[in-house]
Design goal:
Metal Binding Protein, Guanine Nucleotide Exchange Factor, Chain A; three-stranded antiparallel β-sheet; 1 helix; about 45% strand; disordered N terminus
């Protein structure tokens, strides 16, 4: 009789169905600042970079490093079979609003658990996403 090991989480549906698919997460060795409507929305030295096969590189910042006064939770969600269900924030600053511009995974799949507590932006909706190199 086979036994089931409940200590090993089941793979995310995307990885189960596409075992050769890759998602890598690495620390960014530099300072990152996100600016919207002339306001610094988030700033950190603890960003991570997520590279997903066939997608552009995405910079995730710790939610603790966001200026919460500029964020409003949204009802919008999306689903990724590799990362899980994303929740969104709308940004409002200096009379400007950008709906569903910030996303995060409250309960990411185990394979990408390193992004729990981090959020990313649709960069084209920001004034700037400044990413330092961490050198000198």
């Amino acid at each position: 009789m086979d036994t089931i090991d409940n200590t090993v989480p089941a793979p995310a549906p995307g990885f189960r169905d596409h075992p050769d698919y890759s998602v890598t997460i690495d620390a960014h060795a530099g300072h990152v600042r996100a600016i919207f409507a002339g306001q610094v929305i988030a700033e950190t030295d603890r960003a991570v970079l997520l590279q997903e096969k066939n997608h552009s590189l995405v910079c995730y910042l710790p939610l603790d490093d966001f200026q919460q006064d500029f964020l409003r939770p949204s009802d919008h969600t999306t689903y990724c079979p590799f990362k899980g269900t994303a929740s969104y924030f709308t940004i409002t600053a200096n009379g400007r609003t950008s709906e569903n511009t910030v996303w995060y995974y409250p309960a990411p799949y185990a394979e990408v658990s390193a992004i729990k507590g981090f959020a990313a932006f649709y960069v084209d909706r920001l004034d700037a996403l400044e990413m330092g190199t961490g050198q000198g």
